[in-house]
Amino acid sequence: MNKVTIYHNPACGTSRNTLAMIHASGVEPEVIEYLKTPPSRERLIELIAAMGVNARDILREKGTPFAELGLDNPSLSEEALIAVMLQHPILINRPIVVTAKGVKLCRPSELVLSILENPNIGTFTKEDGEVVNAQAS
Fold first, then answer.
1. Catalytic residue among 4, 12, 85, 91
2. What three-state secondary structure class fits 136?
3. What count of Cα atoms within 13 Å lies in the side-chain half-sphere of residue 113?
4. What does pTM read for this prediction?
5. How far is CA 120 from CA 5, 14, 98, 100, in A?
6. How confident is the model at residue 136 (pLDDT cuts 50, 70, 90)?
7. Which tens digit of pLDDT belongs to each residue from 2-30?
8. Burial grade of 90 (CB within 10 A; 0-12, 13-18, 19 or more)
9. Catalytic residue flag (residue 106)
10. Domains in the chain and their CATH numbers?
11. How many other C-beta atoms are found inside a 10 Å radius of the C-beta of residue 63?
12. How does pLDDT run across 36-59, given as a tens digit for each residue?
């Protein structure tokens, strides 16, 4: 079984749903509670590159100091955004999942299915009651 890593916030429903879907696929992932153990600068840059996005694409606004720090300023450089995410890890959107099939910000949580070796987890009910049908076709 290939290794799966999830950058997880247990206080986040989407992150909990994603972790539950990974478990339902038969995998016990490495769980990194990134607020307690933030990624290094190098690792954050690697994750962003592997997702094929830029730092702004994984910047979280809700429930963070986004507005107070003026992060809506479009002139902020990639380096500046990465630096502020390292200083305030809550600004890193979650969950980020790493598998052999790719790296993805899993919002909504069912996006994780596209990078799992066994995405056929059957019918899955998310915390909000939404049903995801991940049956083999």
1. 12
2. coil
3. 18
4. 0.93
5. 19, 19, 18, 17
6. low
7. 799 999 999 999 999 999 999 999 999 99
8. middle
9. no
10. 5-134 (3.40.30.10)
11. 10
12. 999 999 999 999 999 999 999 999
